[in-house]
Design brief:
The chain is α+β, with helices and mostly antiparallel strands. It contains 13 helices and 6 strands. Residues 12-52 form the F-box domain.
């Protein structure tokens, strides 16, 4: 045993050391584990990684993650992380491909939500894989929608996360078209509506109407919905956004 490890054991009781390690997030835990043999053994303990795994993925673990040759909970955690990262990357690629023109149709948008739901991504997964400033805002929006309606996360907790990821104030333009109303046997012109909202708005009452449109999609009298990253300072966007305003 190295002298540094002996010094740690003399100054810190094992239960205190374990409590310190158990309070850390994964990256900090791995950093601490690289300090010495003592911390490497402690930070790799099954009790810590079992807790981290079940905190991140509270649903029952898939049988493939518990195969007989698995060495321990740290290996299970790493395997699941890679699996979720790979599947989330498929959704990222799908949305980026669909939004090459800086907009996405609501059917493709909802398909991305369904794909995330089938993967059973956790809130921490969404933070890691979708709430990235380097991604376009449409991907951030997909993650936000999934957290609100599929994971049913509290708005305050999601908002704090978006603040930490520096994406809370990012904006999207949501446009939808409604069939014209019938009036004395004649159908009026189709109505178009457009709203420019931030991710923060969608977590408050300001974005309630837009959230409803995104959740329902093109159904009933609404025959088309489009989400875009249009520049709000452009004249063309201004003309579109004012058309059909209530």
């Amino acid at each position: 045993m190295k002298q540094s490890d002996r010094n740690i054991q003399r100054t810190l009781p094992f239960d205190i050391s374990l409590k310190i390690a158990s309070s850390l997030q994964v990256l900090d835990l791995c950093s601490l584990g690289s300090c010495s043999q003592f911390w490497r053994d402690l930070c790799g303990s099954d009790s810590i990684w079992e807790s981290l795994t079940k905190q991140r993925w509270p649903l029952p673990l898939h049988s493939s993650s518990l195969e007989p040759n698995t060495k321990g909970w740290k290996e299970i955690y790493i395997r699941m992380h890679r699996e979720k990262a790979g599947r989330a990357a498929e959704v990222v690629g799908f949305v980026e491909q669909c939004s090459l023109s800086e907009s996405i149709d609501v059917a493709e948008y909802q398909q991305a939500i369904e794909d995330l739901s089938s993967m059973q991504l956790s809130f921490e997964d969404v933070q890691m894989f979708l709430f990235k400033p380097k991604f376009n805002v449409l991907l951030n929006l997909v993650g936000l929608h999934y957290c609100i309606f599929c994971l049913e996360m509290p708005a305050g907790q999601v908002m704090d996360t978006l603040v930490g990821c520096n994406i809370l104030e990012r904006k999207v333009c949501v446009r939808w078209w409604k069939l014209g109303r019938w009036f004395y046997g004649f159908r009026m012109r189709d109505e178009s509506h457009s709203r420019w909202v931030s991710l923060e708005d969608l977590l408050t009452g300001k974005g309630e109407e837009v959230l409803g449109v995104l959740r329902r999609g093109a159904v009933y009298e609404v025959f088309r919905v489009e989400i875009s990253m249009s520049n709000p300072t452009s004249t063309s966007w201004y003309c579109q956004s004012t058309q059909g305003q209530d």
